[in-house]
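ok so heres the complex, two chains, lmk if somethin looks off
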Amino acid sequence: MAYSFPEEVLEHVFSFLSSDRDRNAVSLVCKSWYDIERWCRRRIFVGNCYAVSPEIVIRRFPELRAVEMKGKPHFADFNLVPEGWGAYAYPWIAAMAEAYPFLEEIKLKRMVVTDESLELISKSYKNFKVLVLTSCEGFTTDGLASIAANCRHLRELDLRESEVEDLSGHWLSHFPDSCTSLVSLNMSCLGSEVSFSALERLVARSPNLRTLRLNRAVPLERLANLIRRAPQLVELGTGAYSAEIRSDTFSNLADAFSACKQLKTLSGFWDVVPSYLPAMYSVCSGITSLNLSYAAIPSSDLVKLINQCQNLQRLWVLDYIEDSGLDALAASCKGLQELRVFPSDPFGAEPNVPLTEQGLVSVSEGCPKLESVLYFCRQMSNAALIAIAKNRPNFIRFRLCIIDPQAPDYLTLEPLDTGFGAIVENCKELRRLSMTGLLTDRVFKYIGSHAKKLEMLSVAFAGDSDLGLHHVLSGCDSLRKLEIRDCPFGDKALLANAAKLETMRSLWMSSCFVSFGACKLLAQKMPRLNVEVIDERGPPESRPEGCSVERVYVYRTVDSRQRLDRPDFVWTLDEDSSLRYS
Amino acid sequence: MASASDCISQSGPGLKERNYFGLSDCSSVDSSAVSSAHLESKNNMNMKATELRLGLPGSQSPERDSDFSLLNSVKLDEKPLFPLVPSKDRICTLSQKTIATGNKRGFDDTVVGFSESKTTNFSEGNWMFNATGSDPGQAKLAGTVISIRPSGTQLAIKSEVPAKTLQESTNKIIGTNTANAPAAKAQVVGWPPIRSFRKNSLVTTSKNIDEVDGKPGPGALFVKVSMDGAPYLRKVDLRMYSAYKELSSALEKMFSCFTIGQCGPQGAPTRKMLSESKLRDLLHGSEYVLTYEDKDGDWMLVGDVPWEMFIASCKRLKIMKGSDAIGLAPRSVDKCKNQN
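and the predicted structre for the whole thing:
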């Protein structure tokens, strides 16, 4: 069109589009929009690092400033993915170091990051600002030292729940005195003690610091001094929250807290001595997010604390809260949106605390805005689930984990099909669901019929036959991620729904009944899927055809080559449709 | 073994297992034609196959073989679309394969050592006997759940497993079970679904609420295992084992493909078995030794201290060449003495 807008105008318009979906839609309009958009895209999100290659990304988007990426499948969190499987960050970091000298942000989740990668990051990007490593591993505190030392304009260093080989706390002292740009520091996953004076000085010279999450090794006695230097904090993670009971320590702490008028989020709380909790009361009315999931605090003290936090929106807590504590939560915190209850004794044979399905029922009744739940308990009933579903049709995320994974309805001994059926039927906006308990194919039928907005489903020890899997794959229109373990699902449902798999990010099946033959067939028929058989018993062809594979991981990809970093327990089909080993 | 031929029928008094292959009437009966045909064919075909047998793994081989040859004959590229009326053959063979466990894949079927259930055949906790049974075949049903492991079928395939291994491992199981109180269920990999860092911090957290006498709590205990020359390391949960022998055989399986050549294209089963047994020989012949780093950062030979003490102090494991490990043994003995 001769009279289209000049590029600059279109670019300006596009700059208001932040969502990837919108930008992707824009790029499909016509070739010139595609070109303009790709030159002005600054942020990308890659949900599966193997879905695309660095070269493809760099070719399409030459001017990125921020990259966010995920690696291993979710079940890697529970050790279902053997070590060495992949998700190495280095090839990406190396390729981007050349292509994006102005890169500012790297956010990685479940990837293997080495010290080499970190050093490369610290030296390649002059304007590097944000490094977030969630559930990553493979690096040591030496790598952190490089980042601290070389990233002059560092704003965020967030090591959420990563597994870091902790050589010493010395890395923190590598932040130069000239570094005053820190906005967020999360070192909660580290073990070693850092130099407290270095930490205090760092905090003191960072006027923009909003988030400070300390590690367990920072004692309570030090906390007051740190907070005092940063009264502008919005998010605070304490270290160990215990000390000898002394009134001066207490008043010191209480004073420091009272100066923090902007505090919204609290976390940390290892080794809590409950007598020190009231030191925080002055900030509680402003607190919207509270993570007490490491805190062994008796229910009564928890309740006292929660009653102070009337504006709480998110609570993570251990089951020490008990049903009674959840009743109190339901009464006090009418704005609650997210609740996570973790088990204090997950491997014990018997319940150790009086926390049952009743707690969840209470909260669902009392908290009208509750939309996201992760709940570990030891018993559940269909009646409770039906009540919960009727109380809270606005659930977006519902993850229930009954410690005994095939537990039936404890009142009727029936499967929990109708209970979960009620959840998916009533909660029309449900995007994420994890189920446990005794479940037959029927629950999958309900899910396939009703869960039209469901994007992620996690299933364990459930179902009777391929029908179950078939219901889900054929019925859930919005499904992106499906992860299954120990279910009697096999070849038929998988092959019958092969085309569906290309509309999803990934499918994980472990300890199911999928044969190697089916995997080969699937890979042959669907060239845009990578079908990885992850099996540590040696070549799958050495076993009879009907034998099930240990794990299969299927994901769509635009990178047509098989990944070269496969370890020898990952078997895939190469391009000639013959089996390639390692 | 005497009881190889004991058959305990599905409807036995102690076995209240829920059967999901349509053999009981409480399973999902849909109105759709697919399911009812499904159910019927299963009902007709599988009564015999659902009988639980308490033989040793491998004692059922002939039947299982025929199951798999049936499956072989079903070509997967014939009509992969989900048929409206499933052919009886296919449903049958699918069910039979799973009926090998006498049940749908039960939770207990998956109770294993560190790796996924279908690999390690002999791990504690799979056989939930009363501790008094000296013969696995005599284990009572009442009050316990018997799982016939998928390994039953697996061993049939891998007929080259030497009888010696079977015997050794069975003894190991029996020995183990008498040693352990059956109180806590042995753990399934990745269950409950709690992240490692949370599990590990729970151990120390719970100490605050109720006193644990200095021993590691009931949580999992993952440590990294590396091997000289191997390109990547693994993780094991030390709490899956109760003795050194179990740990070392698990490690043998994990690392065998690193020793003699590769599990390469020529990797026929016999070759893989060779590497495992060769590694075992190597380990016993001390070409490789198993060492660990303890809380103080010292490297010690595995096996010198009582098992409980070992898991309380082990931070990580390493399979070293024997020549590199010279000098470790005497030190560990000294340490032991010093600690006492």
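quick notes: The two ends of chain A are 52 Å apart (CA to CA). thats all i got rn
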